[in-house]
Request: fold
Amino acid sequence: MQLVRNWFNKISIERIQLELMNTAYGSGHVFLSALDPRCMILWYLFFAIAPWFLSNMIVLAGLFLLMIATTVLSRVSPFIIFVLCLGLVGQVGWLFILSLFFGGDIASALPLLKLTLKLSIVSLASITVFSGMDPERISDGLLALGMPAAFSFSLSYGYRILPVLFEEFRSVLLSYRLRGRAPASPGFLYARLGAYYLKMLVVAFFPLMLATAKRSRTTVEALETRGFSFGMKNPKSRQLKLSHLKVTRRDIAFLSGTAAYAALLFWIGAAYPLAI
Amino acid sequence: MPNSDKQDIPAIEIRGVSFAYPGSEISVLQEASLTLKRGTFAAIAGGNGSGKSTLCKLFNGLIPNYYSGDFEGTVHVCGVPAEGHTVAQLSRMVGYVYQDFENQLVRPTVFDEACFAPLNYGLSDYRLMASKALDLCGLSDLRDRYVWELSGGQKHLLALAGALSLEPEVLIVDEPVAQLDPQHARQVYEVLRRLNRDHGKTVIVIEHHADFIAEYCHEVCLMESGRVLWQRPTAEALNSLDDLDRLGIQPPEVTRAAAVLREMDNARTQSDPRSSLPDRRSAGRHAAQRLPITMDEAVAHFTTFMQSGNGNLHPSPARIPASDPDHAGLSGSSSNEVIRLQDASLHYRALRRARHQVLHALNLTLFEGERIALVGNNGAGKSSLLKLVAGVARPQSGSVTVLGQDTRSVSLEQLSSGVTLVFQNPEDMFIEDSVEAEVSHCLRRRAYPNIEASVANMLRAFRLEELRQRDARLLSGGQQRRVSLAIGAAIRPEIMLLDEPTANLDLSTREELLGALEELSEHVRTVVIATHDMQLVSRWATRVVVMHQGEVVGDGTPDEIFADRELTRRAGIAPTQTAQLSADLGIRPLCRTPEELAKRIAERMWGSPNERADRPSGNLTHKEAEEHAARSQLV
Reply:
């Protein structure tokens, strides 16, 4: 029980906020952040889509190894990895248990393992990109690849107001707690206390949304006075914003290195078709 | 962009503007006319809802281009007609800093934020412009920092830099003092003054804090119900006491003290048959003379005034008690202790796994019946201390005992039945959709008896009956504050903690708040207020705890604290003008209100009121007496 309690104490909103912000912005010094965001996004697109069309275990395993390497390079926080593992194991574990009910046996675990592998590759690729590059670079990359200015701005602004939203959310939750009543006993396995907190998390969204709506009035007005909508239609502005993007030799080396590795995997995969 | 021959063209020219927001019948502006010269530093003052912000939104074309309501009249900005120009075009000439400036920061880092506007306009030397703006605001050292790591004052300066980056002619700043502590507000004003004096910018502030107006502004435009009532040089404006009084704007304390004294002097000379002719003439001279509006002026004014009191200076009367009765009572009362902090330390984690120590092994004991003011500059740890007491944060080492319970051993929900924390920002407390529901939320959740009656009682006590069905988020600042106090008081706590209750209040609402605090003292045993508002401290508190860098550096009565120059300087607190002035004039104990100060000066010059009991002494002494009588009943 003490364990559960400790976990409750560890997982605070504050902590989650910190980890998220660390993941998003704490990457300035990482090798991957120096790469051109356009290249990174293209790179990511390949690894987000290709695995779904592959069934060769050797190729998948090879890609998975590569993803582990890039994830390590992006110095992601252990917390995120933990959440990822929890999600993967939880998801696939459920499927496996269900398959046992429907007459499956240990053999049915193998295809599930493949699914897990695919999911892992896609997830790790996402983590690599979102943790290895800060949102500003991603947003610039998207703009350069032809996404509308409003979209790329919303992405960077979305990250920017995360701390504000968290702050707001925390104070709303606090208001509920300061004026609410916690269950007298925590219940079996802290179920009652858990339900109390979960309910609070849900109802807290309503005040949060209203408060945010009120804030955005000023934001929208201020954007207007600072020439935002003018800039969106201004090709000069777009050009200036993107002028710092350059594809360097490093980017080419990174992309071609990855391509060569993938080609090698496909070649081996073709030689030893280990499809399940 | 403007040439030098355009120097004569006014920065802002408005003729007969009327405006109603879309969907509203009421005209916020009614035939407002105003001309502001280039290079002026103007304050726009007026009561709540007088149309100050709306007026300023004319200057960059937000009205009528962005808010397309019923609009009449003409607006010229630096000679350019606002009509036919977009907000973006006008904004090149007019920078705007909002009152809730945090919501206008849209980029993650300081430098990005400063680049934002020039980038939008596609100006190729945007980096240079941003650097220059940051430099002007003194933020160059912070250029790579994230916005959410900045303090409130730094954020305000950043919003200013963001507006400055386009090198506008005109800069509008909406209520800089409202959301900032006095020290940071002063810092912002110093920057504004430099921009005005050295860089020739036209600066317009919406402001009702008269001491800031007196110190920094050249002229004042007074608004009343959508009209510009008058536009006068600052000294003359702050001497227009009747108008200011009517619109709920408090003149500087020194001006008030001088006005009261002048009134007393006039009453004395006119009614006193023994007073000589020269005396009467001097009364006439006083009436015509302009009253002081800043500390320096006040010191000179009162010194000459007291010297001109034809030499019969009475020595400081010994019968004035050495210490005020309601201040003296408390140290001897040695009543029950309600809050005890023992070596309590607190740190937060920050980005990049940094640790931020906010409280260092704090020791403090607070007793029942005390009215405690927690003072110190931003980041001194006031709010953190309140959080520790409320149980919102737990000390990482040491202990906090509240009402006999260790805060680590009870849940927040349990603790909060005896202690309430009223947040600095009332909006953060609103979780229901009507005022009535807000006030009753906790009572219903915790199944208090007689909910209906106590809610009705609270609504009446805080004058919220009319607003009971309204959504609290949509009320004015002062009304929101009253709701937040009612929420806190409704559960009848034994300890009430208020974080900056007077922040963002105009002065009439502030007076209301003082009334509400008196109301509270009937229900609550101990009240702790964290505040920057030294007027509140000197009028309300019986004990002042001074914090500095996470430690308690001073603890005593307001008199003791304000008299300690070294301490106030170190902790960055500015005693009230009244306290400073009484210290400068050698009047001890320090006075708490301008009226008291005037009375004491009068006593010094013409003897105590008892000695001249036969003379009418104006309605002031009467008021004072009332006030004292009222005070002694409290606590």
About this structure: DSSP finds 26 helices and 20 strands in chain B. The longest strand of chain B covers residues 337-350. The radius of gyration of chain B is 26 Å.
